[in-house]
Amino acid sequence: MNKKRSKTCSYLRFPPPSLAQGINGGSECVTFDINRIREFSRETKKLWYLAAPAVFTLVCQYSISGITQMFAGHVGTVQLAAISVQNSVIAGFAFGVMFGMGSALETLCGQAYGAKQLEMLGIYMQRSWIIVGTTALVLMFPYIFATPLLKLIGQDPEISKWAGKFAVWMIPQLFANAINFPIRKFLQAQSKVVVMAAIAGVTVVGHTLFSWLLMLKMGWGLAGAALALNASSWFMVVANLAYIFSGTCGRAWSGFSCKAFQNLWGFVQLSFASAVMICLEMWYYMALILFTGYLKNAEIAVDAIAICSNICAWTFMVSFGLNVAVSIRVSNELGAGHPRTAKMSMIVASFTSLLLGMFLALVLLVFRSKFPPLFTNSKEVQTVVHELTPLLAVTVFINSLQPTLSGVAIGAGWQAYVAYVNIACYYLFGLPIGCWE
To answer: Where are the transmembrane segments (predicted)?
Structure first.
């Protein structure tokens, strides 16, 4: 009987004290539960030490493009649609590829840092610069030929024309991202997230003032938006490089090395798997914008979906912050040979993500009539966004967990498995239902 009760007690991770005390040998269960609660609490503190600055950094970095869209909405509906299409389709395509390729560093740098192989971090980052930089050269072509490509896939001619012009102006940002994405993973693996948050905060403040001055005050419109975005992107690159080259990373950065050109193929394979996993997720939203362009009143439809996607992405930055944190924790602990601690990190991050997703969904429902005017002066677009907000809130809650689980996969090096899941969920199930409806 005692064996049976002891087994029952072991299944309960957090049983009520009254239940535990009512079972023979319950004092051992209470001690076990207290230890688990303490472990949960310790891991929560470690996770949020990384997640809080990461969330702030991601919100600031995404706000750079979001703020540009907000100002564009006050310039005109065509301009807002053009920036939305360029950001979602052309830049979204390139961003997904390069961000995914750079995500290989989360696995390699994180596990190398956990295993105390600090010298490899700088070499991994340089390899990533080579691979992602070469990829950026190839991705220039969709930027250059954006207008005919958008027309070819059936987008509105006027929107395609302006989106194509804006895409050419945004080529400098493409190469800034090719340098910055590996830098971010390099610093994140060492838990140096506070300095990234500080740089991102300064950038978003400057970008807001610069965008207002160029787009509205001086009346430069899309040209002003492109100038502000390019300047902000390159400022972050220069600031991050200055921090790394100053010697604050210790043995993790010992200068440029010829070793960066060794074993490139193995690095490409992991980078490709990471890119597929990320792209399948990000391109889903690009596809939504494209299909919206086929509807009647394309400008209003694209603007409304773009605003909802923008809000959705802003809220996802919280989950993506946890993605970064749990990826660091899992990769570091696996590199150090502590799989049990890595599992606890996954549990804590998943529970936290669901709570935050519920909170953000409620905020959207409460303020559903307040945020649409921030993005556009068009009453028609505001009405459509107001009607879509309940669905948007449900999406935010349901999808709050997915980025966190992706972070676990990246930390463990399981990118290929997640890619298969994304194909099935996004493209074989979700997108066909959306198009059919």
So the answer is: 47-68, 88-108, 129-150, 162-181, 193-214, 220-243, 264-284, 304-326, 347-367
Residue 106: CB partners within 8 Å, gap ≥ 6? 185, 188, 189, 274, 327, 328, 331, 410, 411
Cβ 80 vs Cβ 362: under 8 Å: no
- 89 within 8 A of 221, measured Cβ to Cβ: no
| R_g of the chain, CA atoms, integer Å | 23
- The mean pLDDT value of the chain amounts to 82
> For residue 424, what is the DSSP state?
I
pLDDT at position 60 is 87
CA 297 – CA 293 distance, rounded (Å)? 9
Residue 224 lies in a domain: yes
Please check whether residue 15 lies inside any domain of the structure: no
Domains identified in the chain, total number:
1
Going by C-alpha positions, the residue among 326, 257, 285, 330 that lies closest to residue 55 is: 326
424 Cβ contact partners less than 8 Å away, ≥ 6 residues apart: none
C-alpha–C-alpha distance, residues 185 and 111, integer Å: 12
Evaluate whether residue 6 is within a structural domain: no
Q: CA-based angle 160:161:166, to the nearest 5?
A: 95
C-alpha dist (Å) from residue 313 to 62, 71, 310, 399: 8, 18, 5, 11
- pLDDT, position 154: 79
Number of H helices, E strands in the chain: 20, 0
Determine the longest span between alpha carbons in the chain, in angstroms: 82
Alpha helices in 156-263 (DSSP H): 157-169, 171-189, 194-211, 221-243
Tell me the pLDDT tens digit for each residue of 320-373.
Answer: 888 888 888 888 888 888 888 888 888 898 899 899 999 999 999 998 888 888
pLDDT at 432: 75
In a domain, 416, yes or no: yes
Are the C-beta atoms of residues 281 and 406 closer than 8 Å to each other? yes
* Domain housing 76: 46-436
